[in-house]
């Protein structure tokens, strides 16, 4: 059988993907010239902040055949991640004594979960169709994942720059299979952009990082500041971060299309160690050994221990003043890392205290 002539193949791939837990899948065209131009403009404005890797060979992101030689088709898939077992995000955000962690990072590292399922999908295709050269990706190599998923008819890119779908919302991971199989391109029209006049995501953003519809300035984004950014967090943005210590979900929480978004039934994404509503002072007391043990196999590892403490210091500076909070901060006032130490001193000052007071 010549797979290029099998116009039912994409439908079969979707079925196999759903059997593996994906909510949907599709084949993209790989024509990303406009997205490449958008990326270049974003980089030229410096909106990638300190993410130097974004500016390194940006054309690589729109040329899949350079990442996986021989690639002629890209299969994109969606995997829902928001767990029904996690504490209510609004309640956690409203409680300044608790730490808010983006819902995607509460369970097992999504890179591993998604890639493992994509490999099974690629192998299923191989068993049913033909051997093929392929590579699986999930936020793990230079790729315009949202653009590829949009072109695979998995949704539209919303004003907050995330992929959206009427039934699925945006609480999902994206992954790709780069393959040398000549798969039929989509026969259906692109998914209609249904953001309309809504600008809820832009209004809710604590730091106003969505500077215009479909335009995000990472330098102001809490997800960037708490995960990707090294060094001190800008002073003017610290109070706006609130109790968010790893990422930010505000634009998703307010999006109307997420009101009935599909929840995940995948055990890997269930919260670990009570991190869906943990107390800030408890997390701040973790030693590096405890942090390494309790974040093993989780996306939280991306921050590193000192940035974890830096972020918690900011959140404690924004927390309601209490003897417990002040004591927790004083315990780290002489931390050997200069960035952590400075953020702790800033936090103490927010509570009308000095690092030396009471010592």
UniProtKB/TrEMBL annotation:
Q: Where is the active site?
A: 139
Residues given in the record as [4Fe-4S] cluster 2 binding sites = 205, 221, 248, 251
The EC code for this enzyme is 1.17.99.6
Residue sites binding cob(II)alamin per the record: 61, 139, 163, 174, 223, 248-249
**Reaction(s) this enzyme catalyzes, per UniProt:** epoxyqueuosine(34) in tRNA + AH2 = queuosine(34) in tRNA + A + H2O
| Binding, [4Fe-4S] cluster 1 | 195, 198, 201, 255
Q: What cofactors does this protein use?
A: [4Fe-4S] cluster; cob(II)alamin
Q: Name one GO cellular component term.
A: cytoplasm
Top-level EC class, please?
A: oxidoreductase
The family database entries (Pfam families) matched by this protein are listed as: Fer4_16, QueG_DUF1730
Q: InterPro entries, from UniProt?
A: 4Fe4S_Fe-S-bd, 4Fe4S_Fe_S_CS, QueG, QueG_DUF1730
Pathway per the UniProt entry: tRNA modification; tRNA-queuosine biosynthesis
Residue intervals of the 4Fe-4S ferredoxin-type domain: 186-215
Where it mainly occurs, coarsely classed, is cytoplasm
Hey, which family's this protein in?
Answer: Belongs to the QueG family.
Name of the protein this chain belongs to: Epoxyqueuosine reductase
């Amino acid at each position: 059988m010549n797979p290029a002539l099998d116009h039912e193949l994409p439908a079969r791939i979707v079925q196999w993907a759903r059997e593996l837990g994906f909510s949907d899948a599709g084949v993209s065209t790989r024509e990303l010239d406009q997205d490449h131009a958008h990326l270049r403009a974003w980089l030229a404005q410096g909106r990638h902040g300190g993410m130097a890797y974004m500016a390194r060979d940006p054309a690589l992101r729109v040329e899949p055949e350079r990442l996986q030689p021989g690639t002629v088709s890209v299969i994109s898939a969606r995997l829902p991640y928001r767990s029904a077992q996690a504490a209510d995000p609004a309640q956690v955000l409203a409680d300044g004594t608790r730490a808010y962690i983006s819902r995607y990072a509460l369970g097992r590292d999504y890179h591993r979960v998604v890639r493992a399922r994509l490999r099974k999908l690629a192998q299923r295709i191989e068993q049913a169709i033909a051997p093929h050269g392929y590579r699986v990706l999930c936020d793990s190599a230079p790729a315009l994942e949202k653009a590829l998923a949009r072109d695979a008819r998995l949704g539209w890119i919303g004003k907050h720059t995330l992929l959206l779908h009427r039934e699925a919302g945006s609480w999902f991971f994206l992954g790709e299979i780069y393959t040398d199989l000549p798969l039929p391109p989509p026969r259906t029209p692109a998914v209609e952009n249904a953001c309309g006049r809504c600008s809820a995501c832009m209004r809710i953003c604590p730091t106003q990082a969505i500077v215009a519809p479909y335009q995000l300035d990472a330098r102001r984004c809490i997800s960037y500041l708490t995960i990707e950014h090294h060094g001190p967090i800008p002073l003017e943005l610290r109070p706006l971060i609130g109790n968010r210590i790893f990422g930010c979900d505000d634009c998703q929480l307010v999006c109307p299309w997420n009101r009935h978004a599909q929840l995940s039934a995948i055990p890997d994404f269930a919260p670990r160690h009570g991190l869906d509503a943990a107390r800030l002072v408890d997390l701040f007391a973790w030693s590096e050994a405890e942090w390494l043990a309790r974040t093993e196999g989780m996306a939280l590892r991306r921050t590193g221990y000192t940035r974890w403490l830096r972020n918690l210091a900011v959140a404690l500076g924004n927390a309601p003043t209490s003897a417990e909070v002040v004591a927790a901060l004083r315990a780290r006032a002489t931390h050997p890392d200069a960035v952590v130490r400075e953020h702790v001193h800033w936090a103490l000052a927010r509570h009308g205290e000095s690092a030396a007071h009471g010592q």
